[in-house]
Amino acid sequence: MPREKTALSAVPATIDAETRVHDDHHVSLRLWLRLLSCTNQIESRVRQNLQSSFDTTLPRFDLMAQLERAPQGLKMSELSQRMMVTGGNVTGITDGLEKEGLVVREVDSTDRRVYRVKLTAEGERQFRRMAAEHERWVVDLFGAVPTKHKKQLMDRLGELKEHLAGLDGA
Amino acid sequence: MPREKTALSAVPATIDAETRVHDDHHVSLRLWLRLLSCTNQIESRVRQNLQSSFDTTLPRFDLMAQLERAPQGLKMSELSQRMMVTGGNVTGITDGLEKEGLVVREVDSTDRRVYRVKLTAEGERQFRRMAAEHERWVVDLFGAVPTKHKKQLMDRLGELKEHLAGLDGA
DNA sequence: CAATGATACTTGACATCTCAAGTATCTCGA
DNA sequence: TCGAGATACTTGAGATGTCAAGTATCATTG
Questions:
Q1: Residue B150 in contact with residue A124, Cβ under 8 Å?
Q2: CB count, 10 Å around CB of B56?
Q3: What value, to the nearest 5°, has the Cα angle with vertex B51 and ends B50 and B55?
């Protein structure tokens, strides 16, 4: 399809459209990489702190954190969902924590397939110490970010999370 | 230091300050969890896509992506830095890719301790196919996010990244 | 040139993680 | 009640990931 070389012809418009699409792709990719980079940095620091201060790991801390808010205990499958992790994975982490006496598996009285995992008293105590430190670390890591910006990030990331969740049903 | 019980005394102010601090802690923690959740969701989808479409993994893709922009090859240590990952880890991933002929280790002529890792022609070809799909996935995942919000996220995350990098020198 | 220390990479021990296959138990219908 | 299918969890193989220790090479100093 030949185009005239008239001023303000379709040529610039076409280029603009293509440029816009290309830019948007670029923006999405760069945004993803930046998101990943930030998360990795923070996660890495939290891991190191957990290791050096408490000789434990992030997934163990995460599992205990889930249990701390569920005094009645959680099923393995519930832990799996909340930790966004495979069931087989939960088995291993729970094994380790149980071996150290921080957690117990109790059989469910109504369904013998189910384990209710609970924090022991010792686990509770230990988690509280870790949680206090953990909160301090996170607050420090985000310390230089103005509250207004934090809220903006919360909002935008909330939207993103919604969008992502919506992709399943669609 | 005793305080008078006068109306509008320091008591409410103190409570406000504590409340503000507490809220800010809460905001930082929630922000961190939300950031982690978003990243995990996206990362998980990209992993699954790489697995089902190309029978490969994210770290392999990541390593090849680094090499694609460095025709002269990269040292193991450079790969380690850019992938934000341990040296020992790079060794394993490179081993796998080399075994499949997607990557080669060439000895550096000036320093025999160094390997220069490069994409093979086959690796190049395969990476380009994957990169095109990968970009599509990411664009789709962020598709519902308005460009304006994407740019806002870029800005805020950029600041966060700066802050985090600054914590080292301080 | 030879000893010393720094660098570049590999290795091995462990802890996550995913996936697929296996076992135990429950549920529901004929 | 009995059997098929669903559910809850475990297991084992394979890929990451960290860390610390080991090997080879370089670089510097005497």
A1: no
A2: 19
A3: 100
Give the other-Cβ count within 10 Å of A37's Cβ: 16
Per-residue exposure over B103-120, b if at least 16 CB sit within 10 Å of its own CB, e if not:
bbeeeeeeeeebbbbbbb
Query: What is the C-alpha to C-alpha distance for residues B50 and B39, in angstroms, rounded to an integer?
Result: 16
Contact, A35 vs B42, CB < 8 A? Answer: yes
**pLDDT tens digits for range A140-149:** 999 889 999 9
The parts of chain B modelled with pLDDT lower than 70 are 1-25, 168-170
Average pLDDT, chain A: 86
Of B14 and A164, which is predicted with more confidence? Answer: A164
Contact assignment for A84 to B37 by CB distance below 8 Å: yes
Q: Report the pLDDT value the prediction gives residue A166, as an integer from 0 to 100.
A: 81
Smallest CA–C1' separation from B74: which nucleotide? C8
**Rounded-to-integer distance, Cα B105 and Cα B94, Å:** 8
B152 to chain A, minimum CA–CA distance in Å? 8
DSSP-assigned letters across all residues of A50-92: HHHHHS--HHHHHHHHHHHT-TT-EEHHHHHHHTT--HHHHHH
pLDDT at A8: 34
pTM for the model stands at 0.84
Question: Which nucleotides on chain C have any atom < 7 A from a protein Cβ?
Answer: 7-13, 15-21, 24-27
Which pLDDT value is given to residue A170?
A: 47
Select from B70, B121, B115 the least CA-distant residue to B94: B115
